[in-house]
Amino acid sequence: MAERRVVITGLGVISPLGNDLKTTWTALVEGQSGVREISCFDASASSCRIAAEVKNFNPETVVEKKALKRYDRFSLLAMGAAQEAWKDSGLGAETYAPARCGVILGVGIGGLPSMESNHEALLNGGPRKISPFLIPAMISNLAPGNIAMDLNLQGVNYVITSACTSGTHAVGEAYRMIKDGLQDAVITGGAESSITPLGIGGFAQMKALSTRNDEPEKASRPFDRDRDGFVMGEGAGLLVLEEYEAAKKRGAQIYAEVAGYGFSADAYHITAPREDGAGAVACMKMAIEQAKMPLESIRYVNAHGTSTPINDPAETAAIKRVFGDYARNGLLVSSTKSMMGHLLGAAGGVEAVVLAMVIKDNIVPPTINLDNPGEGCDLDYVPHTAREVSVEAAVSNSFGFGGTNGTILFKRV
What we know:
The protein is an alpha/beta fold. The protein contains 12 helices and 14 strands.
């Protein structure tokens, strides 16, 4: 079977900036920050007391109230975003064969809230106080499993856990499934909700989180001289990928085409990227070569851009190695983590949604809080204000602990 083209026909997102696509995208374009003081637990004893929480999310809009005890928050966020993306795609029982449609999601950690609350119940009341729903609520593959049950999708169904690259890897693998003829449509992306005492505490002990507690909205500042760590976020970003000819035949709205996917491993360090950016270079080159596009046709890079001292200059160096002189003369780079924080396993999914919207609307969201570029950070990061430009193609980078790297490339159809 010849390789098939893969397009994006549905988008759904629940983020620190809004509980649907329209609200989130508008806030991104306006340069709003979703970072606030932590409200879901008492963080007063922590060195980091800020995060980018999803606000005013009502899980009863996703599942019935009596069933809520079966789900962890990350799974509910995934289901909510999936429902929006599925509706947006226009797919229905009459337009797809359930066995030819599946779900591949990225989840970095899974059900930390369920684990922590049930551990507390165990300590306070013994084993009989543990919920019988603990395991299915906690394990990460129940996010795609619950989506499949909700929408009757009987095809591929699994989760990818590759730290902060999980969502990007999920989109890439879903693309391959359709391109190779194994599926006709796949819901993909990422979900995460780990803003808990253990989640915040663990990253804080690594000195990975920003401690700019007195200025939450200014804490996430990728590529800036005064960055001091990332801000943890939560949410879900999901896309419906579909075979192009079928989408065209049914008159579907097409946001963009998935044209390239690259992956690599640094094989270097448990948390730090290679200083020469070799792994990031390899996965960007793979995606670009797969898409068979000249470098100058790629106008935008949604950077991993975590706001950490090590990542930002390393990624900048990698972009310059891949794009050469064009990196400083025409290429736009921005980090939406400056507004939404770092959503861990969901980051690549949410940023893939952003990438699709950039191509649809020809607007590049800004990197906010970039007042003084740091050493080694000398590209056009679209500081402060979104920019209206024609974007024919764009890439999104994700890099994770363990040296796992991923890049996806979208282009206009």
